[in-house]
Amino acid sequence: MSKFGTINVDAALGRAKEILAKDTSASPEMRAIMSLLISVVAMQAEQLHLAKEQIQALRDEIAILKGQKPRPKIPKSNLEGKESQKDDDKKENEGKRPGSAKRAKTEELVIHETIKLEPDGIQPEWIFKGYSDFVVQGLVIEPHNIKYQRARWLTPSGETITASLPQEVSGHFDSTLISFIQHQYFACRVTQPLLLDLIRDLGIDISAGQLNEILTEDKEEFHVEKAGILSAGLAVSAFIQTDDTGARHEGKNGYCTCVSNDLFAFFSSSPSKSRINFLSILRAGHDDYLLNTDASDYMAKYDLPKKIIASLVGDRTQSFPDKNAWTSYLENLGITLPRHVQIATEAALLASALAHGLSKELVILSDDAGQFNILLHALCWVHAERTINKLIGFTDEQRAAIALVRDQIWTLYQKLKEYKLLPSTELRLKIETDFEVIFNQKTCFISLNLALGRIAKNRAELLRVLDHLDTPLHNNGCETDIRDRVSQRKVSGGTQSDLGRRARDTFASLKRTCRKLGVSFWNYLNDRNAAANHIPPLGQLILQRASIQT
């Protein structure tokens, strides 16, 4: 029951409908007005309920910040047969999960040492039957310090010649120790103070500054490989998924944008999450701005005045090497109105990205954040359905309407999954018809009708998969990728230097891409820090994986 003070909203609305149904003396106009008022009251009750929940959440947050306890969350009672139902479900699901067939757990392990054991008191009449293997896995974690005694020779001319260090030696810490530090921080999310304690406990003489240098400085080779990930990923992908999350930097709010799919993941942090920022990422490392027909089409699409478009583009293609050159060009033309500058800049960035290989047929899947709505935009069905799921019905009739609509949506979702596996004209027509019926229907609940209308406007984005079968129906993959950054933010807080922010983005991109390509991130770090380069560049692996899939 929904109650506000001493008023039971469900009962009051139900009673009002009963009276309205029985009272035949009122005129049709009066009955229509009363029906509308009942709907308005139901909608206002819903808004009050949502506001009450938000106020309580804010109170709980304030209490936590003050070191106090928030309102306790009391679980629902289990006295209605739910426990027995859970037990029945558990019995039905007993047994091993799919894919969990028993295997020899140590058959692929590399054995570094073999020790033969004999039983005590062996008798002459016993018959030897071989050995029974028992494998113990372990790690050798201890300091391994090397002193290089470099011979020094004095030539007759007075010149001193000193023996060179081996090529793999680049400082006072070896590649394995550097890889361990990077893996603990970037992959295991161990904070720098705790990591410093751990390294010192192991017997390594290292300062906080040296630790920070290992994590953030002289990482240009890694940054270059990260850029290659995005270039290769955009070149071979039919779709990308996008999302962003908060990423504080130097004590100020910022954002981290993720671009990913099943082949790669790329992270980029900046003070803004605007469309300009997203288009800058899609340039894949290039800094130029371009004015051509693609830029003109974009400006016309967003209603930039024709006079301004003509002054910007004219009859020729123009390229600007960097942001300063582009800004100066706009100022010289007298284009200073923020909206005009924004649209023109977005157009020049998109034209640059397309000129550098970005496909116009690339599908961009998002959760409906406006900055990602470019090219062929697709929407996540999970986020779309959430609009319905968060509605609260205040009568049995309203709750039944919500449940019915949600069931219709997920039935349509299953048909879309079937279409991805086996497309047909008949199924496509059925899906398109069902979409129109579901999202243009009128129910007894005004809030539900409004939500359905909002979803109906996104028909093209939600049904993008009908023309592009590779497009996922949800954005869960990208949300899983960006969860690493969220966890690291909660553990380590924001970044304090540009080098630190760039390193965090780079190693997050490398780690998630290694996971997707089946490459051990630990082996990758060892390979790169030792300059062995036995593992091919990740961009090259992306191209190879894409060629196999096609």
Walk me through what this model shows:
This protein is an alpha+beta fold and 550 residues long. Among the domains are: 135 residues, no CATH class; 86 residues, no CATH class. Helices cover 52% and strands 8% of the residues. The protein has a 5-stranded mixed sheet, with helices on both faces. Strand 5 and strand 6 form a beta hairpin. Helix 4 runs antiparallel to helix 20, helix 8 packs parallel to helix 12 and helix 13 packs antiparallel against helix 14.
Let me know the largest β-sheet: 5 strands, mixed
Uncertain runs: 1-6, 79-84
N-to-C CA distance: 55 Å
Radius of gyration: 32 Å
Q: What is the general shape?
A: globular
- For the biggest β-sheet, the strand order reads 7-6-5-10-11
Brief synopsis:
The protein is α+β, with helices and mostly antiparallel strands and about 550 residues long. It is about 50% helix and about 10% strand.
Ordered list of secondary-structure elements with their pairings:
Layout: E1 3-4, E2 7-8, H1 9-22, H2 28-65, H3 82-92, E3 152-154, E4 160-162, H4 175-187, H5 192-201, H6 208-216, H7 220-236, E5 239-246, E6 255-260, E7 265-270, H8 275-282, E8 289-291, H9 293-301, H10 306-312, E9 318-320, H11 323-332, H12 338-355, E10 363-366, E11 376-379, H13 381-389, H14 396-421, H15 425-439, H16 446-456, H17 459-462, H18 476-492, H19 498-517, H20 521-529, H21 538-549
Parallel strand pairs: 5-10, 10-11
Antiparallel strand pairs: 1-2, 3-4, 5-6, 6-7, 8-9
